[in-house]
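Lab notebook, page 48
Experiment: co-folding of the full assembly
Goal: obtain a model of how the components sit together before planning crosslinking
Operator: M.T.
Materials (sequences as entered):
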Amino acid sequence: MPEHMMSEHAISEHAMPEHATPEHTGARGPVGIRFEQVTVAYDGTAVLEDFDLEVGAGEVMALLGPSGSGKTTALRAVAGFVRPARGRVRIGDRDVTDLPPHARDVGMVVQQYALFPHMRVADNVAFGLKARRTPRGQVAERVAEALEMVGMGGYARRYPRELSGGQQQRVALARALAVRPGVLLLDEPLSALDARLRSGMLAELDRLHRELPDVCVLYVTHDQMEALTLADRVAVMDRARLREVGTPRALYRAPRGSFTASFVGSANLLPVTRAGEGKVRFGDTELRVATPGPGDGGAAATLCVRPHRIVLGDGGANVLRGVARAVQWRGATHRVALEVAGHEVVADVPESASTPRVGDRAAVSFAAEDGVLLDD
Amino acid sequence: MLVHTRKGRWAVWAVFAVVCVPLFALPLLVIATASLSTNWSGVLPSGPTGVHYASATRGESLAALSVSLQTALLASVLALAVGTWAALAAASLGRRGRRLMDALFMLPVAVPSVVVGLAVLVAYSRPPVLLNGTRWIVMLAHTVLVTAFAYQSVSAALARLDPAYAQAAASLGARPWYVLWRVKLPLLLPSLTAAAGLCFALSMGELSATMMLYPPDWMPLPVQIFAATDRGSLFTGSALAVVLMAATSLVLLAVSRIRTEASYR
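Observation: model returned without errors.
Model output:
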């Protein structure tokens, strides 16, 4: 008899991983996401092309781009709602490309929340746990824990329609986190909120990620401020393709392409010609730039200068002279638009008595290291 | 409000009354009045009596009411099940498949019900499936006729249902059946009950196909009404019609109660 029980025990233990998702046994470690050459097409039109990206475990990756850039498609390929025509999607070491959405172990929050209107808040949050057959005793505990985490502990008995937009967003977040997913997919989660709520939720998301450092987050947004604030790295997308990946700082300070330069922060993009090592010509003016590069004279290039790195006066290494065409007061700064050699150069300068008025001749300057030569 | 002045509003109400009262309300009122009288030779009927109702709720007539209720209940439940299933299946098909399904389920509506009745009669009068002469052929014909309406209202509701709900459920780990049972069907419930009510009402009033099919032991109420008026018993027929109307309205009222308790918005 004991022998029989022993063997049965051994069999059932062996069978465990088949029946219980690792999540319930707590055996799973942190996971990341990997896109390998993913292409998605609708009716022959590619909406995502040759997308290669690796998101580390515990990393927050923002997919930043205008609408139609393919960022949401990339997220939906991870969730399993679109099927790549080519390429693979991996979560951790699992190839999930052919798995149905319910088998992928992701948490997802979408822009319009999609809370189930016929269920109370607690039942919404419990939905994923019940669908995964979490033992009854644990469900209530984990629902309470998830609601507490987003500060909605007092609203368990409410219906979604009785909550404000911001509260619904928190519940949607709690619902996704309650199943303790390895991967959290956020699809424009803040874009339905007004500006003040948005910055509050942004801080909240930042705090949540510090509490859950192992969760890999893919954050889709068209708002550069959200991406720069939250993300460890940002993937800039445009017209179905990945343009650049890097830390927010690197993308902001040293963008490689003009799309990134103008989409992440504001930028002056000046057409210049190369004029030897570390030098370019803009109109009649020779400018010094820090970017090392081939000095093949005469080749056309684009120079990126951030408006807030340009100062009034002719004290810097590179001086531009022109006529002020527009001056906007923006509280702490003035935005001055100068016409220089037929092009507009915008500078954000602090308030001062010397701010030029429209029509004045003025000189502005910037340091050599603030001029970044772009690849295109 | 489209009309702002008080006079204008009165005028609109007057037009509404002139158009709608004779068209919809008056005929029903006439039937109700006729069912309570023995003689109608002047402008108004005479000889008030309750004898028609006494006979309308007894014996053969009561049996006919029961037959109608059973037929309508079975037909609408079957139609709802089949129609919902077909609508869910069609929603997951491609554009072509969906169009084919739409056309298939439009057929019983597009074809005159006499033709549907005849088709069912011819198709099931011989082995292997011999239903002619049984009550099942009536139920089958009713089901075929009303399934089209169930299919249409459920697919319209499905098209309006935001796919984000089902997707959110799937991403939380719910299998397709669980999503259907816990999310889709509860969200569709108001449309399902509305469809059930519509099917029930249509089946309760179905005459033309039933006329060709009913066996002697399964005579629905509309056939009884037709038979009564056909042999000249207009007042008995009116009483039966009022009974039919009342029974249908009662069931619809009950169904609509389900709907109000189950609607979430």
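Interpretation: Chain B has a mean pLDDT of 83.
Next step: discuss with group before ordering constructs.
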